[in-house]
Amino acid sequence: MVSLDDLKALAHPAETKMVLFVLDGLGGLTRKGDTKTELEAARTPNLDRLAAEGNLGLADPVAPGITPGSGPGHLGLFGYDPLRYRIGRGVLEAVGVDLEVTERDLAARGNFCSVDAQGLITDRRAGRIPTEVCARLTPLLEKIGLSGVELIVRPLREHRFVVLFRGDGLEEGLSETDPQDTGKPPLPVRPERPQAKRAADVANRFVAEARRVLSAEHPANMVLLRGFSKYPSLPKLTDIYGVRAAVIAVYPMYRGLAKLVGMQAVKTGDRVADEVSTLEAVFGQFDFFFVHVKKTDSAGEDGNFDRKVALIEEADALIPRLMALKPDVLVVTGDHSTPAPFRAHSWHPVPVLLWSKWCRPDGAPKFSERECRFGGIGHIRGAELMPMIMAHAERLTKFGA
Amino acid sequence: MVSLDDLKALAHPAETKMVLFVLDGLGGLTRKGDTKTELEAARTPNLDRLAAEGNLGLADPVAPGITPGSGPGHLGLFGYDPLRYRIGRGVLEAVGVDLEVTERDLAARGNFCSVDAQGLITDRRAGRIPTEVCARLTPLLEKIGLSGVELIVRPLREHRFVVLFRGDGLEEGLSETDPQDTGKPPLPVRPERPQAKRAADVANRFVAEARRVLSAEHPANMVLLRGFSKYPSLPKLTDIYGVRAAVIAVYPMYRGLAKLVGMQAVKTGDRVADEVSTLEAVFGQFDFFFVHVKKTDSAGEDGNFDRKVALIEEADALIPRLMALKPDVLVVTGDHSTPAPFRAHSWHPVPVLLWSKWCRPDGAPKFSERECRFGGIGHIRGAELMPMIMAHAERLTKFGA
After folding, report:
1. CATH number assigned to the domain covering A4-87+234-392
2. Chain B residue set in contact with A, beta carbons under 8 Å
3. B20, pLDDT greater than 90
4. ipTM
């Protein structure tokens, strides 16, 4: 794979606009007794026209056989080899709620849980308390006094929260406290390397104090912590390619991921059509747009084939509005496959459609996994897509004389 | 990619003959409103027959999205990963005018430029002086006395020249002197690593002397230097595979590139038919033949679709003469794409045709970019082609027991 340093040396400015339209979990599977995936079953006349004019391909977001989480899947799409560049869950959640993560921070994902009088876990998710309850409790956690360490605690949805331990010498490399079962006590945090000793002590003191301040708050009378991680040192996409990049996403995590690579988050509404309206509104202000559609993935995880089909069709219906903006490059793909018959993220390669006026047209009759096997892009790694986008936007100079 | 060391360990002798017939810039694009690339529009009955009997594929000379210069494009074809093996601009220009570059040489590309009385640049290209003026001035530069360093200076086109600093301890790692703007003085050469200190001193003395000897030569009264580079330490293709290799090319740069990997240059005429005659004449003396056709690339750069089509047809008409020599392997491909509609080198993958009696035949109806998407070679990196050529020539033994 071309190094980011090499790409930075090749990047040169242009006036071109690029749109990366990500239908989360796009790749699918056929239902038993059927021959069509979700994408193949969907009526997508607009995407099909772009497939004929542009190029198709299949991408392995991480590598063949590897099922990507949302972080690695998107890092791949943004041009970073996910095997090399890794982002911890804690940091991912923190940036996902618009927290500014600094280099002194150690982030962790927390769950409120229920424990009995003996301290044994009775519910790992505290009965999925409403988000409002979570939001009432996190300030109690934030007030815990830990000498030399500032605490920033933010509610997520239901029983979930994120905590930043801000202080000196808080290194990553910590075990999680969730025993993954009820009837057991939360595990102590263990340092997985010597440098993480201080951080482990701090986290254990936090957990002990949390139990104290939450003692009257059943069912949310205890916490579990995992995904301890520091801010990753990633070169910024905006620096590598010299682009102004925006993220338009409903869900905080995807905004957070994009911000990690230098994109600017733009406020948008809840529907895909709202996201497209936002794109239209800010199209003049940026060069690169990452537009994220979440619900295709959710439908896949729910095993709802027909809803995923309908959501793909809804996205297709918005393509004319995208094209009316006259982007120089439009890519439609997923960050991974979430086949409804599989009900989860999967390792199956992801269909990719790249349209630009500089495509050698594939002439494909349809945007589908089947046609993607024969497309001009070939079968690539996710991280190989970004240089192609930049090339088609005429933003990379010749390599060597 | 298989390492060159591994390939060397696998190579074994055979009596087989291989021809690598490179149509420079072969890959193309469709014209607006049309559906055929240059290669697809060309009538190529001879290549089409080989496509049916042999294998097709697409190659990214460097990596997806990366537009190769001629150096990296050819290095890829010769089996060297261009991201790993790099040839500096200075060396490329030197071999391009048939200069013998030795290991004691530091090469640089020069431009004549114009400076005012204060030494500030008024024209970075000295008004693009005619080549004849350039050729009159380079001997003045060559006569500059630098103790312990021999100077070899050759004119290129217009204001361009190449200089070899021949002496001991001249290491690469020098900054360029072009400030990329007028109204500024040329920059001093800075060593980018400690070993390059002596070379920087030598280059700076050369530039100072150049200003003195050119003082009366306005507009070409100063020089700018860039692309300082040493002869690359490449394992020789001839050593890796144990072949006697010849280059048949009209243009010096391609002969030079081939000589860098150990090929022997054979004198030839100006036309492609002359090159084939040369091939016929020396076919008994070598095992591997790199035959280079330049004009397909020039037609692409000129945006002349029809001329590129005609040149491809001209090459096709010579295929029966190539096949009459009974090569064991014939490869027809390009070093990169130069689509006429794009008028420049581009990142688009390059069509590859490999014919040998050991092909599992593709049965393709035509040698075209479209058919190459479905070919038995698949979608490869340029440098992966050479092991396939050697394999089909029965020159690689089994890897492992």
Report:
1. 3.40.720.10
2. 27-30, 35, 37, 58, 62-72, 82-83, 86-87, 89, 92-93, 227, 339, 342, 345-349, 369-370, 373-374, 378-379
3. yes
4. 0.90
